[in-house]
Write the structure tokens for this entry.
Amino acid sequence: MKNKNNIYKSLYLIRSFEQTLETYFSKGQIRGTTHGCIGQEVIAVAAINNINIEQDWITSNHRCHGHFLAITNDPLVLAAEIMGKNIGVLNGRGASQHIRLKHFLTNGITGGMIPIACGLALSKKLKNEPGIVLAFLGDGAMNEGYVMESLNLASIYHVPILFLLENNMYAMSTRSANVTAGNYQKRIDSYDIPYFETKDNDYFTIKKTFQEAYKFVKSQTKPAFMECKTFRFCGHSKSDKKEYMSQQEIQKWNLEDPLLKIRKDISEEEAIKIEEEVKTIVKEAFQTASSSSPPDPTIILKHVAN
Amino acid sequence: MKNKNNIYKSLYLIRSFEQTLETYFSKGQIRGTTHGCIGQEVIAVAAINNINIEQDWITSNHRCHGHFLAITNDPLVLAAEIMGKNIGVLNGRGASQHIRLKHFLTNGITGGMIPIACGLALSKKLKNEPGIVLAFLGDGAMNEGYVMESLNLASIYHVPILFLLENNMYAMSTRSANVTAGNYQKRIDSYDIPYFETKDNDYFTIKKTFQEAYKFVKSQTKPAFMECKTFRFCGHSKSDKKEYMSQQEIQKWNLEDPLLKIRKDISEEEAIKIEEEVKTIVKEAFQTASSSSPPDPTIILKHVAN
Amino acid sequence: MSITYINDLRNGLRELLKSDKTVYLIGEDIGDPYGGAFKVTKGLSLEYPNNIIQTPMSEQGFTGMGIGMALNGLKPIVEIMFGDFITLTIDQIINHLAKFYEVYQIDISFVLRTPSGGFRGYGPTHSQSLERLFFGIPGITVIAPSIINSPGKMITKSVYCNRPIIFIENKLDYSKVLLPTNKLINDICFINPIDSVQNFPMHKITIPEMQPEATIITYGGMVPACMKVQEELLMEEEISTEIITISNLTDIDFTSLLNSIESRKVITIEESWEKFGWGSYITSKLTQSKPFEHTSNIGAKNCYIPAAKELEDYVLPTTKTIYKRILEEIK
Amino acid sequence: MSITYINDLRNGLRELLKSDKTVYLIGEDIGDPYGGAFKVTKGLSLEYPNNIIQTPMSEQGFTGMGIGMALNGLKPIVEIMFGDFITLTIDQIINHLAKFYEVYQIDISFVLRTPSGGFRGYGPTHSQSLERLFFGIPGITVIAPSIINSPGKMITKSVYCNRPIIFIENKLDYSKVLLPTNKLINDICFINPIDSVQNFPMHKITIPEMQPEATIITYGGMVPACMKVQEELLMEEEISTEIITISNLTDIDFTSLLNSIESRKVITIEESWEKFGWGSYITSKLTQSKPFEHTSNIGAKNCYIPAAKELEDYVLPTTKTIYKRILEEIK
Ligand SMILES: Cc1ncc(C[n+]2csc(CCOP(=O)(O)OP(=O)(O)O)c2C)c(N)n1
Ligand SMILES: Cc1ncc(C[n+]2csc(CCOP(=O)(O)OP(=O)(O)O)c2C)c(N)n1
Ligand SMILES: [Mg+2]
Ligand SMILES: [Mg+2]
């Protein structure tokens, strides 16, 4: 069991990572693009802390840094990957959105991992392997046809998958409520998939509900769906100023920063200690990454046909 | 108002057309493929009799003969099209599954017309045109992602479309219940689209419910969805022997042949008269089509780029 | 002992299921009693019920599902009922499967099988040869057997070659009898494999003791048509030709190909549209290696595939049009 | 008066919206304040709110919706946020739109716009030039402006040419300034339109008073790179080249093209994979009309587009690699 200090440390690692990344980007020290998860860290950490990291697979999406760090606690290989360095997870071949590490997979097509996650889950069932698939997705992805097909597939084949919807209410600049009919609970229900929900973006609420959902999937070998209402404090991607959000909305959620909530339960002294420690780790990770070598071009040919 | 005789005549025209087509196919007198709608005729006729044929658009699918005949009452141009003759609706260029006549459109990709039907409906709304879009689809199509996307699109843009699901319980040889989670009502509901239903494959029940649904769409400028439970008495396509259906199932539905139901309300004499008349029309249509000329190859180049 | 293409293919699938419990067939209506729209899988679900996954109509979804299974070490063979519907799998194949294979640098067994081609009056959305959509996409190999390969052996090879394979069958080939190699056929020609490092063979069909005046390069369902043309050119015009058939459409061993071309005139023949077709890549590469007296590409006209026989035969490359074009061009 | 590519394009769209109430822009995040991922439509939804349809993430669905609107006489311009995602529209475009246009023999106004290309470190699923998927599909015309065309005028032409158009923009071009024709540029070259019956122009970029030693044929985002190479070849090696830019990628006027090639060496350059690429069709057709001393095709290596700069520059055709290859090949 992780205690609050450890949880806060994991959360703060992600926050600090994303903030540092923003700084690097704004200084023009990184090319490409990136999607921060500031405000949503609790979902990643609450979920990943409560799976079996040896057995379960995790599929992610463009907004994957939190998931990755919750699993690995390793800011260096991620920073290096995003910077296109040889010590990056994939030697800089994939960057921010295209990462694989053992059972963790992401890709850049919104929702595109969801059919694949169903297949992974089916394979586990067919092979009689222990463990489940944890599939992260966003509210935008919910309107992609292949995601809807996958809900049906998961349900009819009884595959052990837990869909975890991080509903930050926006797909890029689009308010999902404006372009999504009905509500997610009804939609999930209509595929005969049990629906779990958290509304407060709070680590412990998410953890509790996640454990239930996870247990259901594992014990029943059936899909479940969990929706976590959350909020993205940062822009959609590096250059986004969030002009499409109202100031009230932003302020309201800022007041409920899930990291501050946990921080309250830790002594100020300890909190500062954790923060300093993490900041140093992250800073060093970025510095090491930044000064490390780029990959040698020939490495990309390693697995290329012909 | 059409009376029973006229209705029976329309229904019988479709049945007789499909049966004659089967004979031609089994004798090897037609190439290509075809999908009969024997047993489902009531849906086509009840729906088409109750729309505004001048204003409304109709999108269909592979199983389109009934829809086409209910609109046109013209077996000749359809038979000729299927036979690849110049007097066919599209000079034999499209055959059974690829037909267009004024506001009537079909294509061969299951469910693929549904996004397009939504666009037609949206265009009517944007142009302030009267009328709606009637979009036929099958139970198999319900699991295609783009169909599900379309339900959402229709709902959020409030387009005047009536989805008409001919639920014959099978997609080709696959029992839809085995590969479809939940039920259609719940699924439709989850997109905030009003759901209408008929269960008895009866002309008058379908007509009544259809009128309600149609009125809703027209007066509210919003989508509605109507499911008609039905049964396909013939094979999926020309050569299908229906081995995947149980004998009980087949017998049960045969007893409830919707054409026999209507026929009971007509005098035997009149019924026979209608049947003979229709048979002659159909026979002559097929003979005329059969002995008519094939198209000249250059006609296809008419609208081909370069 | 003669065997049809479809039976050979089905035997190949049966052997795979029998010998390897990690092989799965996935697709619409592939189970019994239907056994697939073209009956390729008929009977297999009775023998190996646990390894046949009959799906709803969700081509994107179940293709992706197959990819997921492959990522965890299973060997899915996904059937797309008509080649025209691979349009629905493009995103999962190009943006997911191909990328996983190359970017993650992993071995993977994934085969997508589909029947391609026209000549059956099925009309515009059921007659195309859309394998072209995958040509040149890194990470994707397109394999097409013909009646001179064993499709059963080729599907087995595809399953075990550890990379994503699109496996193109031709509807007209299913009922045809496979042809033997190294044996005089119809008193006309010999079929011999071409020496090559390739996993998937090229063959040459030659008329013995005659110097070929032209070389025809083709694949899949066009092979029988080309053989017919070869025969007619010989009988009616005393023109000898050689035919080279390629089964790996995308990874072509140009050295072996060049070495085995014995004429100075090269004509490629494919069923798909000639415009931006497979053939133009071949002739472009060949002429960049050495000059030829003549090269040309024959394929479908720049037009949808219509249904009526007269129209379909006008658009698609038939024996007649191929014969005429070759005659015009090499004279 | 100089204008950037993106402003010219936006002006074109604005003019369309202003003058024709049946024009609609459809896509994800195209409304204000966001104005599209690349800001092409910024401001337009404020001026023409009724003609901007911001969509959910349902590329297949809203592409099909656009097709339906077009069938009833509206003029939709669908934006797909990244060219990589056109994979999701393939079925609606190839099996529906193209077929309606040809089989139903109707005029139709439908434009799909999308930004293509790499060089920005976006990685494997956000850097491709997948317009190739539409090459040679009957009924589909692929248009790609470059900085020597006005993309604003080209989009207008596309809307009014009564057939399905895939309109390919290049991410790197957006911020570039459009170049003038018939005027000496950088003291180096002239850009002149090529006489042609085409609706969408070809241009030739020539170095005055020098006989070109090689002809470069290219399109879209590769035009600036080719001009740079042209300049460097001149400065460093005193080699004169001519560049021919094509804006209608699929319906090429080969007669005009052939007439305007003044060297004996032809090199095609495209950003997408060289294998089975656009260029091989061009050189294949050209060499079938008349012999050249040399032809070759330059494009991306047969590999996904990696993210790291060193890798991306290794895979994609950069100014450096193009320069080197041309030098090697024409010497
Ligand atoms: C198929 C596809 N369409 C569009 C995009 C561009 N895009 C990337 S993320 C995104 C928004 C996704 O929203 P959501 O699923 O809610 O996730 P979030 O960004 O909110 O975490 C969009 C439109 C994409 N990557 N893939
Ligand atoms: C995208 C696509 N997948 C598969 C097919 C092959 N196919 C044609 S009809 C059909 C079954 C359709 O079932 P349903 O929608 O219930 O209509 P029904 O045939 O029962 O009228 C199938 C699998 C197709 N035409 N298009
Ligand atoms: Mg979101
Ligand atoms: Mg059905």
